[in-house]
Design brief:
The complex is a heterodimer of chains A (535) and B (181).
Chain A (H helix, E strand, L loop, with lengths): L1 H10 L21 H23 L3 H29 L1 E4 L3 E6 L4 E7 L3 E7 L2 H5 L2 E8 L7 E7 H15 L27 E2 L2 H10 L4 H12 L11 H9 L3 H5 L2 H31 L3 E5 L2 E6 L5 E5 L4 E7 L10 E7 L1 H4 L5 E6 L1 H10 L15 E2 L2 H25 L7 H28 L1 E4 L3 E6 L5 E6 L6 E5 L1 H6 L1 E8 L2 E9 H15 L4 H5 L2
Antiparallel strand pairs in A: 1-2, 2-3, 4-5, 5-6, 7-8, 8-9, 9-10, 11-12, 11-17, 12-13, 14-15, 15-16, 16-17, 18-19, 19-20
Chain B lengths: L23 H7 L8 H26 L9 H22 L1 E4 L3 E6 L4 E7 L3 E8 L1 H6 L1 E8 L6 E8 H14 L6
Antiparallel strand pairs in B: 1-2, 2-3, 4-5, 5-6
Helix pairs in contact in B: 2-3
Classes of the chains: A alpha+beta (535), B alpha+beta (181).
Chain lengths: 535, 181
């Protein structure tokens, strides 16, 4: 690391030159950078300084102490900033950008040009006055661990951006590597029929299945939060009895038929409320839903009040997800969702068909380059998880439940009047055991995975199963994880690195996990990440 | 891309093709794994010591305050810290291993929860080389590869000799952006 320091000093003289387009030795960022940092230190010191002034009875003493503290902080942050600046060098290599930094712990990062998707220049107020910029390099890693250089002169920043653009424009069309953009004004003038659209009738059916009592829950929650506003105590059941006995006595006097009618009315009200909520939510969100295929990718427009217009480039679709609901499943209704690169995930949900038949979803998936499994009768071979995994899961869940109920029973042991509660707690155990066992058995039956030449499939969930379909070639990594029990019992979980989503196949035999990983790795190696990004 | 996928699970890589034997799982678990530099055990031990010393001081203070019977605090703490400083670093060191293939990096780690991660070079976004003061003293580096995946976004491989780590970085770097087939 000493060599890089020396090299950095050597080229410092020409660091302000406007054309850093060649491969260079280690450079430093702009020396004024640590002044910016020193000023930031003052900003952080302002509050303690003010506190010092007011904490002292003697104003003069307080002021002196505050100014002294401010001075010390400025000196400290300046000198730390100076050392950090001395220890940070970057170099523009022939095929990557490298930054070495750190005072005690050294860190060196290498970012290949091929992987840089975007270069952004940022300016705060102080850097702007000094003519400095912060340069950020965005890669496919999703912005969480990107590279940034603070601070360079504006000219250097521009030149650096230009350098990256020139290096990357070789084989690839620069426009295709641009980050996903919401379509303000899509240039596509093609008027092909939409891939998927929902008319009012479909929306009505959809709304029916979106039945939701969330509103009731919200009201209940509000009642709990704001019960102090009510003239009586909502949760005082004796009070309710009194009220029934008093002015409410007529209700009791109405007889059984009327009470039953009242219950029916109440239930009907709930149903109407739930359905209305569903309709309103569905109609406002998915009004005039249309998905089109344009030159730039999929274009989705939807919404009644806030209409959103999102473009998803085809090559950025990493996986597709088929969802369904507990009830709608039996009527053959599903939803289709794209899983896109990590940095797109925040911008919008990528639902491309919220409520559709399989026959409608298949062409959408195919346009994105995915094929949905035909049926259970199709030629894909579906495999279950390990039976041992299911047995262990049921035992673990039951053990936890037993622990909790035993603890509760023990805590009630000495209270004689709680004997019934205790008995119930202990009697629950066998029922719970059966339920948990049945649940795991059903999961064993239903949760399946499969792999074919191009894709890997995973179906999870019991009552509303979700099917994930990932493209083998677009996966990023493969990890096999085993806990202490899994090691003894010979099963493992396979985690596949998926950009923008998760893909894990749990509790499969170790051999199977290794075989799947071998297959996937052989697909991955055939294409580089940057080639995938060019669509 | 087309010919090697004729059979999806074809053992395409030469380094693990030995899996076809009687115990494929066991073979795949340790075959071709390289241990880390022995100094890495020392690095873990130094960090364990750094954690252990304040705990020991607190235990001594509590002991001196005679809250419980003599030795009731100090002895268990000493036992635990002894495990942490003497036993665990060696075991953790032996639990780790890596394999640098032609096209991928494999990192195995974990005592209780075993993890075996493979990152193909063609999926690496950027590469880090980190050295904290302890690692610098022992001449070691930590290599981290970052991917675009949400899971395993960055895979760390500590305990490499600094020179080796630099060579590995250049190897991985040279693969990026190159069509493999």
């Amino acid at each position: 690391m000493t060599t890089s320091d020396d090299a950095g000093t050597a080229v410092l003289g020409e660091a302000s030159g406007p054309a850093p387009c060649k491969a260079t030795e280690g450079r430093r960022t702009h020396p004024l950078g640590f002044i910016v940092r020193g000023l930031q230190g003052v900003k952080n010191a302002l509050l303690p300084m003010v506190a010092l002034v007011f904490a002292n009875d003697d104003l003069r003493l307080g002021l002196t102490a505050a100014i002294g503290l401010g001075f010390i902080i400025v000196i400290l942050s300046m000198s730390v900033g100076y050392i950090a600046w001395r220890r940070l060098t970057y170099r523009i290599g022939t095929d990557d950008i490298r930054v070495e930094s750190g005072i005690l712990s050294r860190a060196a990062r290498s970012v290949p040009f091929e992987r840089i998707q975007d270069v952004s220049l940022e300016q705060g107020l102080v850097p702007r006055l000094l003519g400095l910029v912060e340069v950020r390099f965005e890669t496919g890693a999703g912005g969480k661990d990107e590279l940034k250089l603070a601070f360079l002169t504006e000219a250097e920043g521009e030149a650096l951006r230009e350098t990256v653009r020139i290096r990357n424009s070789g084989p690839a069309d620069p426009a295709s590597t641009e980050a996903l953009s919401k379509a303000d004004e899509p240039q596509a003038t093609r008027t092909a029929p939409p891939l998927f659209a929902m008319d009012n009738r479909r929306l009505l059916t959809f709304g029916l299945f979106e039945f939701s009592l969330a509103v009731v829950a919200v009201f209940a929650g509000a009642a709990q939060q704001f019960d102090f506003l009510l003239p009586f105590d909502l949760w005082d059941f004796d009070g309710w009895q009194d009220r029934l006995a008093g002015p409410g006595a007529w209700l009791q006097g109405l007889g059984f038929a009327a009470q039953a009618a009242g219950a029916v009315v109440a239930a009907a009200t709930l149903i109407v409320v739930g359905m209305t909520t569903g309709f309103i939510r569905t109609f406002t969100r998915d009004w005039d839903f249309r998905l089109e295929e344009t030159d730039r990718g999929f274009r989705r427009r939807r919404g009644l009040f806030t209409r959103t217009d999102v473009v998803m480039p085809k090559h950025r679709v990493q996986a597709v997800q088929v969802t369904t609901g507990v009830v709608r499943r039996f009527f053959g209704w599903h939803g289709l969702k794209f899983i896109s690169l990590a940095q797109d995930a925040g911008s919008a949900s990528h639902v491309v068909a919220p409520f559709a038949r399989t026959s409608e979803m298949t062409p959408i998936a195919e346009t994105a380059g995915f094929s949905l499994p035909v049926d259970a009768a199709g030629n894909t071979e579906w495999r279950r998880s390990s039976a041992r995994y299911r047995v262990d899961q049921a035992l673990i869940e039951f053990g936890l439940l037993l622990l909790v109920s035993a603890f509760l029973a023990a805590s009630l042991w000495f209270e004689a009047e709680e004997a019934t509660v205790r008995a119930i707690l202990l009697a629950i155990a066998p029922f719970a055991a059966v339920t948990l066992a049945v649940r795991q058995w059903l999961l064993w039956q239903r949760e399946r995975h499969s792999i074919d030449l191009h894709q890997i499939y995973n179906r999870t969930g019991l009552f509303a199963p979700t099917l994930n379909v990932a493209s083998r070639i677009k996966l990023q990594s493969a990890e096999i994880v085993q806990g202490p029990i899994a090691r003894r019992r010979g099963y493992a979980t396979l985690h596949l690195g998926l950009a923008g989503g998760k893909f894990a196949i749990r509790g499969i035999e170790l051999d199977r996990a290794h075989a799947l990983r071998r297959g996937i790795l052989s697909s991955i190696r055939s294409r580089d990440f940057s080639a995938l990004m060019q669509g | 891309m087309t010919n090697d996928n004729a059979e999806w699970a074809e053992p395409a890589e030469p380094e693990t093709s030995a899996d076809e034997g009687g115990f494929p799982a066991l073979a795949a678990d340790n075959e071709g794994l390289r241990p880390l530099h022995p100094n890495y055990a020392k690095v873990i031990r130094v960090w364990a010591l750094i954690i252990a010393v304040p705990i020991l001081i607190v235990a001594l203070i509590v002991e001196a305050a005679e809250v419980l019977f003599p030795g009731f605090v100090l002895l268990p703490v000493l036992l635990l810290l002894g495990l942490l400083v003497l036993r665990l670093p060696t075991r953790r060191y032996h639990a780790r291993g890596y394999a640098m293939g032609d096209e991928r990096l494999r990192v195995v780690r974990g005592l209780l929860f075993r993890s075996d991660a493979v990152v193909p070079f063609g999926r690496v976004q950027h590469i880090d080389l980190n050295r904290d003061p302890v690692e610098r003293y022992y001449g070691l580096s930590t290599l981290t590869v970052h991917t675009a995946g949400s899971h395993n976004a960055s895979v760390r491989l500590p305990g490499l000799l600094d020179e080796d780590a630099r060579v590995m970085r250049e190897t991985i770097r040279a693969h990026i952006g190159r069509e493999s087939l």
